[in-house]
Helicase C-terminal domain-containing protein
Amino acid sequence: MLILAQARLYLDWVSSGGIRWSTIIIRLSFQHFMDDCKLEVHKTIDMCEDKSPNLVHEDVVKVIKYICDKKPEGAILCFLPGWEDITKVYRMIPERNDLVTYCLHSRLQDSEQWKIFSRPPPGVRKIILATNIAETSVTVDDVVYVVDSGIHKEQRFDVEKGVNCIDNYWISKASAIQRKGRAGRVQPGESYHMYTKEKYKEFEDYSMPEIMRTSLTKIVLDSKVCSNNMNALEFMVKLPTPPEENATLRAVEDLKDLELLDENENLTSLGKTLAEFQLEPSFSKAMVNAVIFKCVTPVVDIVTLFSSETELFSSGLMNKENIKATKSDFCSSSDHLAMMRIFEKFLEFSDANNETGLRMFCKRLNLVPHRMKTIEKLRKIHFDYLFNGLYDVMPIADDYSDNDELVKAVILSGIGNILQHRNWDIVKNRLKQNVNVLLTRNNHKATITQESVNYKRNCFPSEFLLYLNETRSNVRRMTLVRECSLVSQLSVLLFSNKNLNIEKVDDDIKSDISSDDPVKLVLENTTVKLICDRKEAEELIRCKVALMSCYRYYTRQLTNPPEYNKSVNAAWDEILVILNKILKRHQVD
């Protein structure tokens, strides 16, 4: 076993006067770097010169085969960056009767993960292909050999683009030591590192702190509660590992857009309330908006399901087509509504204490029961935020929860991410028509992943899709969206927190429009544009102004000691009745 001791801890122990002599057995883990091995791994050695690492899969397999053919018995633990690398190496390992290979990934179903602890029969060597989950979370006693790729996949927030980017990075020295320590936990072991000694010397001592690689929106909001009116930059520079200045400024601007900070960086009444919610501020705001628009339960369910990174399907990595088919049975145009309805069905069994029915339901849909129960507990916490955090101005009601378009619109009002569809593209400087292109809020092309109900959709009854999260994969050079929902044009115009402006229409477009006075209706600071008659545009703007005025009134009422105004309450009830009817007419499926 490898024993690591910090010198300071040792000195503290000695100086305490409590020295006790005992026998300590240290089992050494012998390590090998690629430049002192006799293996033909030139591609890997050359790759070590690159700033951004790229795994050479065939070299990894060479090292595994070398251990299998030349070394005494003992399991092999191989650290790889991600699932794609695991599957590629898995396919390249030869099928032999004396080898058994298992995979370990956080999104694999529990039964698959437990297989790594099984002992193979005599004469059979176990190989485990794992991500960095095996660095600290898992100990497999019979592992004698470690193959360390030196690479891990990490998500970092791109401040300029405002999105999470996932890429391959070299690990830290601390991680390399942890990986080496997995070899020979109960007997002497060996570790093979897929990089040179010189590259190891270039590694950072420790992994990048989380505060330097994530969005700071929630952190800045929390800091405002305890920073005595200090501005965000002043507060952040006092931290042990201060984030970049532009990351802090980005978070401040995002909080202002959400109306949680005013222009002087002071908390608004809504900001003070949402600081108590342990959620991303945009998700919290969507829940408060649901109270105002009286569709609370479906919005809370959707926020709970998608604010957690828990993989609810047991086949989440390997059977994405099946997940799409399952969700499509509940809703064919919205991942959010589909998962909400699946969750509602689960809750029916849970509320009735029908454990048998619940397990059969989960088995039929390939859901993981204990993870669904975790989501159920989170749901209760999120409801408690609303019941305990808001003033009793209006009931936590579901009057309009059956209006799918309103539910999506309210989610949009808090989170506000839109994919825009177009049927043309520019490829190699040539116009290509009759293609489906999806653009994010940053005007980047996006790809909807296989598990979405909208994957490979050809018919778009609306050009807009609502999404909650996006990830930029630098390895695959694409922006990925896992879940999205078709949403009407009217919902986008009325419920986005951007202003509507009227602009002139270009002369060459006017001839195609059946209006005496056509204008361009533009959603401020976005690419969303609508060409319509001036009167229609002006009516939409007036409608949005009235809607937002009432909305802001109730936001203040819910987060401040309320002053009841019967006439406003009556007017709002009438507005909701009309809005409900209009959105139902514009619902997209």
Observations:
- The longest strand covers residues 417-427.
- The two ends are 59 Å apart (CA to CA).
- The longest helix spans residues 534-559.
- DSSP finds 23 helices and 18 strands in the chain.
